Amino acid sequence: MKVEVHLWSGLRALTGGLEKVEVEASTTGEMLQALTASYPALGPVIEAGVSVAVDGRVIASSLTEPLRPENEIFLMQRLKGG
Amino acid sequence: MALDDRKTTDFKFVGTRPDRPDGLDKVTGRALFGADAYAPGMLHGAIVRSPHAHARIVRIDTSKAEALDGVKAVVTRADFAKGLSGEFSFVLENVMAGEKALYDGHAVAAIAASSALIARDAVKLVEVEYEILPHVTDVDAAMAQDAPVLNASYADASVPAGHHPNVVRYHDSGHGDVEAGFAEADLVIEDSFKTEATHQGYIEPHACLATLGADGKGELWCSTQGHWIAQKTCAALVGIETSQLRVTASEIGGGFGGKTTVFVEPVALALSRKANRPVKVVMNRSEVFRATGPTSSTSMDIRIGMKKDGTITAAEGIYRLQGGAFPGAPMEFSAMCGFAPYALENVRQVGYDVISNRPKQAAYRAPGAPMASFAVESVIDELCNKLGLDPIDTRLKNASREGTKASYGPRFARIGLVETLEAAKAHPHYSAPLEPGQGRGVSCGFWFNHGGETSVSMSLSEDGTCQLAVGTPDIGGSRASMALMAAEVLGIPYENIRVTIADTATLGYNDVSHGSRVTYASGLATIKAAQDAVAKLSKRAAAKWGIPEDAVYWEDGCAKPSGANAGNFDPLPLADITQNMGATGGPISGHFEATPEGAGVSFGTHIVDAEVDPETGKTAVVRYTVIQDAGKAIHPTYVEGQFQGGAAQGIGWALNEEYVYGEDGRLQNSIFLDYRVPVASDLPMIDTVIVEVPNPGHPYGVRGVGETGIVPPLAAIANAVSAAAGVRLRHLPMSPPRILAALKAKAHEG
To answer: Which end of chain B is less crowded, N or C, counting CB atoms within 10 A of the terminal residue's CB?
Structure first.
C-alpha cells in the first residue's frame, strides 16, 4: 500500500529536492523503514528521533499506528517538552 | 483511547477542588525532598568547576585533595563510561568535562569526603592546569565566521554548507509562496528581536543520594522530573546495566523542564563506587545557575505581511537559538510554534541550533515557543497599530481552527484558540479603561503537548480503598488529579485513594513528567487501570449472583444487575466485594500500560496591562488575565495554578531575568540577589479563565496545561510595555536600563 509522506523543507537536501515522497507502508514503523531504505540520507534524521502526524494527530513515537493511502502524513521533528 | 461521549459532562468528582493529598506533608516539612535523604556511612560530595569559559584541560592533579584527612574518593572523567554516542555523550561531557572545559562552571572533578566542609576544602586542593582558549557566549557572535570553534564535529547533516561549525542543526519548514504573499500585502513589517537566557528558577537545588557497590548494583534517590530517564542515563554514564540501578524520585521543589536530565546524579554514583559508601551531593544556588540548564538565548528576524482588513498574507521567521556548549537548542519548536496560532497560506520558518560557551540548555516549559511567540506577536501588534486594527479581532480573523493547515504542516483537529480569543474579547479586562501612562497588550500562544510511555497500577484494599501507583513525579498537583479520575471510575470517595509515585523497580517504564503529559497520559492510564479493576469487581459480583458478567454494570461505586432480566439483586458496593476478595478469587488490581498518542494541542490568549516610569524605566504589571483551553479541567484549582505560574514566570522572563556574562565569559549574577525572579510584590493578582474544548484523544477531554501558559506572556507584556512607553521594545528582558535606552533613542529620533 502506497502512502504519501510530507517532509519538512529542510529535508529536501536529503531526498534529492523532494518535499513529498511515496513509500510502501501500512504502519508508521514500516513508513519510517521505507523512508530510510528509499532515501538513506534520511536514516540519521529518523534515527535521531522523529514524530509523525497522521491527519493532524501527532504520533510522538509509536511505530504501530496504522496508515491508509488517504491519510495526510507529515514527518515532524521529535516532540518533547518541559 | 478516544473521548468517551458518555462521560464528558456528568462528572461527580472530576472538576471539583479537594485539598491535595501531599499538601499537609509539604506545609509541615514532613515531605522528603532531594536533600532530605540520609544513609549510614554517608559521604558528602562536592564538585570542582572550571572558572574559565573555554579552556583545554592540560593536567589535573588530585594528590593534595586525596591526602586531606576525611577525603574518601576523587573522580575525574576517567571514572566514567567510554565510547558513548549521541545525547548520552553530550550529557556525560556536560556533567564531567573531558578534554576541554566549555563554560564557566563546567565540572572537571569531584570529591567525596566525610563532611560537606571537608569536601569543599578538598575542592580547593585539586590543581587543574588550563590552557585558556577564546570564548563566545552570544548567539549571533557564535555564528560569525571568526567565532571560536567549540567542537568541529557536532554539526549534523541538516546544516547547509557555508555555516560556521558552531551551527550544529538546522530546520526549515513551511508552505506556499511567501514572496507572492508579501506582494499581496498592504503593509509588510520586518523586525529583529533578542531574548536573553533565563533559568527555570526552581526553589529546590539539584540533590541526590547515591549508592553503587562493588557488585554493580545501585540505588539513587534524587529530585527529578523523570526517574526512568535518570536511571537510563546514569547507568549509561557510569557504565552499568540499566536494570541494576533503582531510582526513587524524591518530592520535587520545582522543575519546569530543568529536571528532565541529570547533573550531579552520575557524579554521586561514580564517587560512591570509588569510595564504596553512599554519597550525597547537593548543589548550591550558584552551581545551579552556572551549571544546570537555563533556556536558550535567541536572535530572531520576523517578517509579516497584512492587508488593510487584517488578513495576514505571508509570514516568515528566522530563529537562532544558542543552547550552550552542546547540540539541542529547541529551535525547531520556536520555528513550529511561532506562527501556529494563525491560518497562513504562505509561511516559512527557519531555525538554527548554535553552540556557545554557556551551560547546556535544558527544557523550560514549552521549550523554544515563548521566544518565538514574543517576536511574532510583537510584529502582529505593530501591524495592528499601524493599520488601526483591533488586536483581538485581527487574531480572530486569522485564527487557526479545526481543519486549518498548521504552519508546521499537518491540519489541526478540534482546537480551542477561537474560544480563548472570544473569551478574551468578552472579558471585562479587555474593555476596562487604562490610566494615563499605562498600555495594554494581548498575545496568543501555542504548544503541542505530549503523550509518552506510561504505566499505572492500582490495587484495591480489603477496606474498599485504593492504592494507585503512577510513575510520573508530581510536579503540579497530579496526585490530586489522578485520585479524582480514579474516584470517577471507581465511584469511591477521593479521600479513599492513595496515590504513590512508584520507583523504577516497582512499576513499568514511565516517560518524564514533561510535555504537559501527566494529567493527559497518566490520567488516561489511571482511568483505564480503574476500568480494568471495575471489570474484575463486576466479575466477582456476577459470580456471587450467579449471572453472566455482561449482565452486570458499575455505577456509583456499586455493581448492579443491568436490568430486570439479569435478576433482582441489591447493589453490591466496592467494599463489600473487596472485603472477601481473598476467598472469591484473590486480590483485585487494575493495570494499564501504553504510549498514548492523542495529546491534544493547546492554545491560550493573555491580556496584560502595564505601566512604565519614564524617569527610572521601572515597569509594573498592573493587571493580568490568562485565558487557556484545558480541554477538561480535572482539578480546576491546579489548572488555574498552572496558568498563574506561567504568567508569573513569563513576567520574570519579560522584565528582569537574564544571564549576564562578563567579557571574560564568566556568569556575573549566579545568585537570586543578582538574578531577579519576580516576588509576590512584583505581581498583580492574575485572573484566569478556563476554556474547555474537549481533546478527542482523552476519555474525559483533557489537554495538558503545564506549558502553554508560558508561551503568550513575553509578547503580551512586551506589547503592553511598548504601548505604555510609546516605543517598541525588541530585546528581553525589558529591564529599566533597556527601557531607558529605548526612550532615549526615541527622544533622539523625535
So the answer is: C
